[in-house]
Amino acid sequence: MASLHARTQTSLSGITEKSLALFTFDIVAENHVHEKLVSLSLLQKDFVPFLLNFLREQTSQILTNGPSTPAKTPNSKAHGNQRTGSEKRAGHTSGSSSSRVQLFSERTSVTPCTTDTSFSPAAASSGSSSFSGSSLSSPCSDLPGAACGGSPGFGHSPVLGQGERRSSQRSSLGSFLAAAPEAAPPPRRGRRRGGSSVGAAGRHLARDLGRSLPEEEDGKGESPASWSAGRRKRSEVPLVPAASPPSQLNLNNLEEFPPMGAASGWTNKSKPSRRINPTPVSAERPLSKPKMCFTSTPVSQAPAARFPSGTSLEAFTAIQEGNIASVVGSSLQEEREMLKKERCKLLHQASSPSGLSLDPGTPTKPSYARSASLPAESLPVTCANPAKVSCKKQLECLAQLYSSCIAENLVPNIFLELFFVLQLLTSKGSSAEDEESDLEVNETSEDASRKQHFRNVHNCVYFAVQVLDYQYEIISRLEKGTLKLLAENERIASFSPTLHERLRQAYESSTAKVSLLLPCSVQSVSFQPETDNRSNFPTDRAFHIFKKQRDIFYELLREWEDNHEKTGWDFERVLGNKIRAMMAHLSATCNHSHFARLFQKQLIQMCKGPIGGGTSWGDTPDQDVLNMLGPDNLSRLKRLQERFVVPQSIGGPCPPPSFTGCQQFFRDFILSAGSYQFNQHLVDSLCLKILELDGLTLIEHVHSDGEADMDEQDEKKRFTVVLLSLRLLAKFLGFLVFLPYRSMEQPTRDLLESAVALRNKTQPALDVLKLLRQSIRDRRAVLTIPWIVEFLSLVDHIAPFLDYYRKVFCLLLQVYRLMVLSEEKEMSFLNKLLILAVLGWLFQVPSVPEELFFSTDVRKEGLVTDTVTSPRALDSVPLVDQQLLYTCCPYLGELRKLLASFVAGSGTKNGGFIRKITPTAAESLAPKPSATQRKLQAELEQAFFHNQPPSLRRTVEFVAERVGSNCVKHIKATLVAELVQRAEVMLQDRVKEVDANHDKLLEEACAQLYEEGAQALIRGREFCKKKGPEAVRVLLPEETSAAVLNSAEDIAVELATEKACGWLSANIAALIKREVKATFNRMLKVPGPPQPSEDAQELRRACPPGCQHRAPLPSQVINEIKDVLCVAVGPRDEGEVIDYDWLESLLGRLRQTLRCRKFMCPTSEQQLAKCTVELASLLVSGGVPLRRSPASPGRSAERRRAPGGLVARLLSLWKEDFGAPVPVRLLLSGRNVAYAARAQRPQWDLFLFMLRGLVEHDLMGINEIVNCLHNLKELPWPSDFLKELEGLSGAFVSEHGAAAAPPAARSEPPRPVPGALAAQS
Amino acid sequence: MKLSKAQYDEIAQFLAQVQPTRQSLRQLKDKFPSQSQSTLLSIFSQEYQKQVKRTHAKHHTAEAVETYYQRYLNGVMKNAAAPVLLELANEVDFAPSLMARIVLERFLQEQEHAVPSKTLINSMLRDPSQIPDGVLANQVYQCTVNDCCYGPLVDCIKHFINNSSCSLCIAEDQLRAKGYDKTPDFILEVPVAVEGHIIHWIESKASFGDESSHQAYLQDQFWSYWNRFGPGLVIYWYGFIEELDCHRERGILLKDCFPTDIVTLRHSMAQH
C-alpha cells in the first residue's frame, strides 16, 4: 500500500486509476468486511459506471467506425438527462430535487476529494465515518473550481463522430484522479495498498468480488429493499468526510444546491454531476443505436416514452425514508421526463443535421443523428502504429481495470463492451487528429486531469488490443467468422503478435460455424381428430363455426404473407375488421380455447425457427431469389450471404425487443382482435405450454463411455428446439401479460405510485419467480433464464417496480453477477455465455429501469445454494453451441459486422490471409444423393410427420435413438470383440519374439484392423435395418395403416443408421485401438467368440407384384364406348360408321381396364357393364354400322362373322373381367330386343350365338333365358318379327332342351316354362 | 392439357353458339385440333353448364314443360323412330338429357297422376328399359347417350375420373369417419413429392379448371384442405388455364393428369 501510495504521489494518473480500481475491489474482496467499510462498496457501484463513461467519452472523438456509441453509457444518458432537466427545472421543480442533482454533480466534480478520503485507511478503520458517494462529494461542493466548473474536461465538449453526439461531458478519470495528489495528503493514500502486484491482485480480487458479494452483503443484515438501496444507504451514512471541511450539507440551501439552471454558473456545475450519477446505465442512451432502434418497439411505443427509473427510486424510498435520496429520485425523474419529451420532439423531426456541433458551455438540447452511420468511407484509415502510442502505462492500467470489470460481470452487458472495444480497434481516426508528438510530455497533474488518453488511433488500438488480450477467453468462443476477421486484423497483428497468433490458432481449431438458417415455408397446423373433430365441440354449430374460423384464420395469414411487405399495406386497416368479425363468432360459440390452441400451434410452427423468431444476423434470403437459384445453389447462396456483411446493417449490440418476421402477424392479430377472452385463453394456453416445455426432462440418462457423443448431439438438438420454442412462447406471453399496462405516455409519479400499489395486489399470470428459483436450484438455468428474459423484455414501465417482478429482476441480476465466465464443472462456458448475453441484453431493454444494474441490492434475493446434486444437471451439460448462441442473440453478430465493415472500409487485405481449411470429409456411408434429393427427402419426412399424431414422431425418434445406441453396443460386443481377438492372436506371437517396442507393435496391429473396422458400418446398418422395424411395429398402434407403418419403419431405420454409423465411422478406429490396447495390456484374457451377425434380410417390396396400373383409364374407355353407342343409337351423319378393328381394340382395352382394379368402384363399374350390354344388343341387332377393314381381303368368311367375334369378346369380358354383376337380362328386355325389331336385317344367328354364349359362360341359366324369351313374345311386336322371335326361341330351346338339365340345373328352380315353350314350338 | 387464358377464351367464345352434341364436339375438334378431345369436352361441358344455369328456369316453367311434352307427343306420333326428343332439345337450346328428364317427368305425372319421385326418374334415366313406354324409353336413351354434358353416362365418366387415385390414399369416407370437418378426395398418409413439391392430399376434378370454377374451389375446398393437411395436389383431368397454377410455392399444385414425377419417402417410384 505504501508503494501504491508512493506511486500515486508520482501523480501518474494511470496508477491512480489502478489504485482506485483496486480500492474498489478491495472493499469487497475481504472476507470480513468491517461494518463501516461495507458502505464503501457503494463507491464501487459508482465506479464502474464512471469508468465506462470515462472510456466512452475519452474515445468518442476517435470512433468513426460502425454505429454510434456502442453504449448506452451511464454517462451520456445521465448527462443528457441532467441538462434537459436543468432547462426545464427552472420553471417548476422543487428545490429539494434540484439539490439532489446538485449533490451528485458536486460529488462527481470533486472526485479528487473522494479519492482522497476513500483511500484513507484511517477513514476506513476509524469508524468515524463510512463513505458514500454523497458524503464524499459534499465537501467538495464548496470548493469552487475544484475540477468541475471551468475545467474543459468537464465542460460540454460534444464529441461528434458522425454527427452524433456522444456524451458531451468529457469527464476524464485520469484527470480527476490525477488531481488528487494535490488535494490529498500523500501519506494517507500510500497506506492503502502495496503497489507492486497491483495488476494481478486487482484481477484476482475482482474475481472474488462477484462471488463474495452476496455473502458479504447478506451478513450486513440490512433490510434491502430495492434498487434504490444503494442510494438510500448512501444517504444514511453520516455525511462527514474525513479529510474535507466538515460542513454538513444543507440541501435546502439554494446557494449550495441551487436549482438546476437557476443559479448562474449552474450549467457548469451541473454537468459534472451527471458523472457519478449512480443510476447510470440504460436510461436514455441519446446517442446509441439501441435508442434509435427502440422506435420500432413492438407496440408502436414512442421511443422516448419510457418510464423513468428515477421514479422508482422515489416510489420505494420515499416512503421509508423521506430523505434526500428519495427527493433526488424524484428530481431526476422530472429531468428525465423533460428530456424524453425533448427527445421525442427531436425524433419526430426526423433527424438533426449530422455534424452538428454544440457549444460546450451551453446546455443545448441533445442532438440526434442516425446512429447507424456508415463507416466513414471518406475518411482515410489512419494506419495504427504501435510506436506512436502515448501514455502506454495508463492505457495498460485502464485496460486491466476495464477487463477486470468485464471479467467480473461488473458491466451491465459484456458484449456491449466488447463491441465498444472492437470499435476502438477498428476506429479510423478522425480528421482532426493530430500527430501526437508529445509522447514524452511531462504529465503533470494538471495535464493528466485533462489528458486525452484516447486522442489518437494508436492509443485506442493499443488499448483495444490489450483488452482483447484479457478477454481472449470470451473472444475465442465467438463464431468462426468473427474469429477469422479478428485473426486477420492487421492491427492486432502489429500491436500484439502473440494475441494474433492465439487468435489464428483459435480460428483454425474453431468448429463454431454459425450458418444462416433458411426460412421454413409456412405450414398449416394439421387437423388432429383427437382434438379437432366434432366430439370436441358442444354443438354442431360450434364445430361448424370453428371450421370456418380455421379457414378464415389462414386466409388472413395468407393475405398477410402476400401483402405485408408492400408499401402502404396496413394490418389493421386491411384485416382488422375481418379479425374482429371472426372474434365475435368465437365469443358467440365459446370456441376461444380451440382457437387459442390453433393460434399457438401456428405460432410455434411459423416462428420457432430463428428466422420467424427474428432474423438472425444475416438477412433472410429472399424467397424469389432462392427459387430462382434452385435448391442446389442454396448452400452456395447461403455462404455467399454469410460473407456479405453489409456495413449499413450494423445495428449495435443491443437492439430493442421486437417482433420480427412472422411474429408480427401474430402480434398484430392480437392487437387488432382486441379480445379479452381470446387473450385470456391464449395466456392460459401459453402458460401451459411453457410449463410443459420448461419441465421437460431433456437429459435422460447418464451415458456410458462410448456413446456419450452420440447422445449429446440428440440432447443438443432437443434442447435447441425446446429453448427456441420457450423463448417464442414466453415473448408472446410477456406481450399479452403486460399489454394492458402498456402506455405511450409515461405515467406520472402519482400514477406510478397508485399503479404499483394496485398491481402489487394481483397475482402474476405465470409464477416466473418460482420457476426461476427452481431452475437455479435444479441447475436448469440455461433453459429457463433465456425464456424468462424474453418474457421480461416486454414488461411495461410499471411492472419492474412491482414487488414481485422486482424480486425477479434482483434474482436475475444476482445470477448475472455470479456467473463469472470460466470453464468449470458446474456449468459449461457457452451455457454461461448465453445466459450472460441474454441478461446483458435484458438490462439494456428500455422498459427495464436503468437503476437496476448499478444500484440493485443483490442481497435481496439470496440464491438458493443447496442445489440438487444431479450428475447431469442441465447447466453442466454443454448444450449451447455457437449456432444456438447466435440464434438466441443475433446481436452478437454485430461484432462481426463491425470487423467486416472495417475490412471493407480499409480497402486492404480484403481477401483475408487465412486460407480456408477444408477438413477432409469423413467417408460417407452411402453414395450421397444430390442436395436436391436430400432436401426433398428431408422435407418429405417432415411432411410425413406433420399430419400424423405427434406420438408417431416421438415413437420413431425414440426407436431410432435406442436402436442406434444398441447398435453401437452390439458392434462393440461383436465386431470389435472379434477384431480384438484377432489382434490378440497377432500380438501374441510377436510379443514373444521381440522384446521390442510395444507401442509400435500396437500401432501396427491396430492399423491392420482399422480396415476391418469399416465392417462396422455394414453391420451397423444391418442391425438397424433389422431391429428398427421390429421396434416400430411393436410400439405403434395395431391399427396403423401399412403405408404409415412402412414409412415410419423406414425413417426409424434411417435415423438409427445415421446415428449409429455416424458415430461408428468417427470413432471405430479409436474404439478398436482402445480395446486392443486394453487387451494387449492383459494379454491373457480371451474374449468370447464373436457372434455372427444376422444376414441382411430380404428387401421389402413396396409395390404388390403384377399390376403396373398402366391400364387405360376407365373414364377414357367408357367415353369411347359412349361414342359407339351414340353412333349406333343415332342420329348419325351420313356415312358415319364404326371401324371394326377399332371397336375390337376398344374391347381389348376395356379388358385391361377391368383387370386393373385400381380405379374401379362398384357403381361406375355397373354403369360400364350396362353400356356393354347395350352395345351387345346393338351389335346383335345389327344396329352398329360396322365398317369392315378393307385390309385382309382373304378372310371374307371370317369377316362375315366379325360381329360374332365382338359378341364373343363381350361375353368373356362379362364372365371373366367384370367384378360387378352384369345386367345381361337386359339383353332380352323388350327395349333391347326392339333394336332388332327396328333393324333392317336382324342377325338372328348372331342373337342365337349370343344366347348360347350366355349359357356357356354361365351368365344366364337356360331356363332363365327361355323364360325371358317367353315373356318377350307377350309384347306387342309386328307379326313377322314375332315369328322370327319364335323361331329364335325354338332354335334355342331345341339346342338346349336336352343339355339344360345336367350342368346348369344345379342352381335353377324347377322349370315349368321350358315345357310350355316346347309345347308351343 | 394446360391452356393459356387466351386460348381458353377463344374456345369459350366459340362454344357460346353451339349445342352440347356429338356433332358440336366434332366441330370443336376441327376448329381446335391442337387441343385434346377430353379437354375440349370438359370445357364444352362447363361452358354449357354455365349456360344451362342461366336458362334453367325458363325451361322449367309449367308452360314450357307443357309445350315440350306436346311437341314430343306430336313428334312420335308422326315417326316414333325419329330422334324427336333430341331434336326438340337442340331446337330450344337445352341439354338433351335435361329435356329427356322434363318430358319423362311429365309423362310419368300423366300416367300416375302424381309427381314422380326423383329417385324413380334417376333410375329410369340410368336404365331406360324401366320406362313403361318403349318409344319414350328409346327417345330418352337417345338423348342421354348423345348428351356430352349431362346424363348418367357423363356422371359415370366423371366419377371414374375422380376415382383415379393411388393406393397411398385414405378415401374420403374413411376421413369423414375420423371426424374431419373438411375432406379432400384423398389424403396421403405418407406424403409424396410431385415435381419437387410436397403434397398431402389430392383433389380430383373431372372438369376443366377455368377461372370461375377454380376460384370457387380454392375458396371452398383447396385452401381449407391446405389449412388442415398442408400442401396438396389438384388434378383437373380435363386441363386448366395455366395461369391459375400460381400457388405452387404456397402449396396448391395443379396438374391435368396423374403426376409421373413422384418422389416418395425413402424411395422413388418413378425413376428419371
From TrEMBL, chain B:
Keyword Magnesium tagged: no
Coiled-coil intervals: none
Superkingdom of origin organism: Eukaryota
One Gene Ontology CC term in the entry: nucleus
Subcellular location: Cytoplasm; Nucleus
Protein species of origin: Nothoprocta perdicaria (Chilean tinamou)
Listed InterPro entries: CDIN1 (IPR029404)
Keywords in alphabetical order: Cytoplasm, Nucleus
Gene that encodes it: CDIN1
Name of the protein in question: CDAN1-interacting nuclease 1
GO biological process: erythrocyte differentiation
